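Work package 3, deliverable 3.1, input record:
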Amino acid sequence: METILSIRNLSVSYYTDEGEARAIRNLSLDVEKGETLGIVGESGSGKSTLALAIMGLLQPPARVKTGSIYYKGRNILSMQGEEIRKLRGKEIAMIFQDPMTSLNPVKKIRDHFIEYITEHMENIDEHKALEIARKMMKSVGISEERLDDYPHQFSGGMRQRVMIALALALNPNLILADEPTTALDVLVEAQILELVKRLKNEFSLTLILITHNMGVVAEMADRVAVMYCGRIVELSKTEELYKNPKHPYTKGLIESIPLLYNRSRKLVSIPGHPPDLRNIPSGCSFHPRCPYAFDKCMNVEPELEKKEDGRYVACHLY
Amino acid sequence: MHATFTDEFMVSVEGLVKYFPVQKSFISQLISRKREYVHAVDSVSFQIRKGKIHALVGESGSGKTTTGKVTVGLIEPTSGKVVIDGRDIFKDEVDRRELRKKAQYIFQDPNSSLNPRMKVGQALEEPLIHLSDATKQERKEIVMKMLEDVNLSPAASFYSRYPHELSGGQRQRVVIARALIIQPKYVVADEPVAMVDASVRAQIMDLLITMQKRLGLTILLITHDLAVASYMADTISVMYLGKIVEQGSTEQIFSNPLHPYTNALISSVPVPDPKVKREKQIPHGEVPSAIRPPEGCRFNPRCPYRFDRCTREVPELLELEEGHFVSCFLY
Ligand SMILES: Nc1ncnc2c1ncn2[C@@H]1O[C@H](COP(=O)(O)OP(=O)(O)OP(=O)(O)O)[C@@H](O)[C@H]1O
Ligand SMILES: Nc1ncnc2c1ncn2[C@@H]1O[C@H](COP(=O)(O)OP(=O)(O)OP(=O)(O)O)[C@@H](O)[C@H]1O
Ligand code: SF4
Ligand SMILES: [Mg+2]
Ligand SMILES: [Mg+2]
């Protein structure tokens, strides 16, 4: 397998008046070409920060403290203005949670396409750009006449389709989708997920799917990385993760979801609440909530290591 | 569900209608005189037995919040009747203060429903000042006990914190505690876990169930998450575009869903188990506008089983088996 993206020892912090929020702490991760990698974790665990870092879009008060992010062997974090702008869109594109904030309300959909395409591609005229726009609208299931509409004339689900069409317009290899369906109702969510699956095959994409919905990940991902408090605490094939979660946090996460098809199952809830990133617990950051914690957990931070069975877990139990 | 002994029920809603006038620009008012309305809730009926949890489920904009607010008197209905604990809240001379003591609302967004400048202790004490005769000393005791009850412990430490010093889950606990502090009989919980983290969701659901059991509360649970309804509710109403399309016990709704919309909803929920592979029945399109809802059955433009009659007539909510109602011409 070919590694398309390789993150090494990445640490990112937000520097605010209340102190340093350590959003990502010494994180390493490889993404294989053609896979769908799910990233799950609760609010504030650093998922979006990671996505922004990969896109080279982090802005103050965020600062990369250490680490590198290699895309096809080139370090994104040391790229300069023009170089990174070329990478975005043509190589890596992003789909955000809330399409309304990324679409300009006073601009027609066609102008979004023309602007996005001409900005990232040299030697392309409006006519050609519009041709791409028509093709993309068609592949996300919206008729091309609607290119003349404004964003507010579209429903939430259609706006998300437009965002997907835009992201794919320049034929990128890697797509980062940050909670692409969180703002949508279940039926529309199901439609969008089907669409993403289809397009992923059609355009042979690598997909990083960020979500806090364990159901969405189970249906979409080949592998799953579980984040807690700025770190990956577990990484494994989707089936293995759900069948046999190793990290106590992953276990808790899976056992605390009510299931429609197994309603008599007893839910186990994870005690306590997520930590404050300005004041991260010592040792394993999950230890104050962990039912299995022992002495070592309070003092020594476990690293994400490959175990005998090929699974990656950051926990002293293994 | 339409039983004869009214005193079995804490809540009884009959033929509830709520239309909101559409705000029009000056120009469009000149062009067309016709006033337009959002048909937010259209002839909704349900009852909740004392001490039980009834869930309203459905997509965004289906009228869940509007229905919930009407049942505690926060919104006046266009027409219809709401009886809480034996009293018609819009007809009888119901004292507003009495109603607030009896029926409380837990709002959809815990962040905007807490005053950021008010400490947790004050926020909890406030309803006691307005709605009870407790002395200052007693109020403090009640607040401390309630904090312990909702697991904000040690209570003394939470008493003097501000909302921004709490996690999302803790904030939701405060909102729940505030609604329960005057010991209401009926509570509307509007999306109580939508804004809390996955790892804390089960805690909050269990807290509500515990309080319901301990205080004998009757709860109207509003949620778009079917799994949450399946875990908490005794009975369920499925809403679509302002109407109830199916109603029954939780068991009936999930083991024997009848309405095409209920079926679609259930089969669309992403299953957190990669082994489970299902045929999804995803209806095309999205929820139409509630200003001009479709003629006939409101679900017909998206329904895979639609036939002639569905576009012409409005199906009634019929009882197919005991306590199980559906509004669809297939039955
Ligand atoms: N602009 C900012 N200034 C200060 N702190 C920030 C900023 N953006 C994010 N953070 C903090 O960084 C941490 C990680 O945030 P991030 O948005 O990456 O989390 P997330 O996992 O995407 O959460 P969610 O599921 O809520 O989207 C959080 O504690 C957050 O409060
Ligand atoms: N004050 C209002 N004025 C005008 N229209 C309103 C008002 N409140 C609600 N509506 C409309 O009534 C309909 C039902 O809204 P409601 O908030 O009850 O839905 P909901 O089922 O709670 O949705 P959600 O899941 O998004 O909270 C929607 O079309 C909404 O836009
Ligand atoms: S009445 Fe007709 S359109 Fe409506 S749900 Fe039943 S079959 Fe579908
Ligand atoms: Mg995020
Ligand atoms: Mg609502």
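Residues 101 and 153 of chain B are 26 Å apart (CA to CA).
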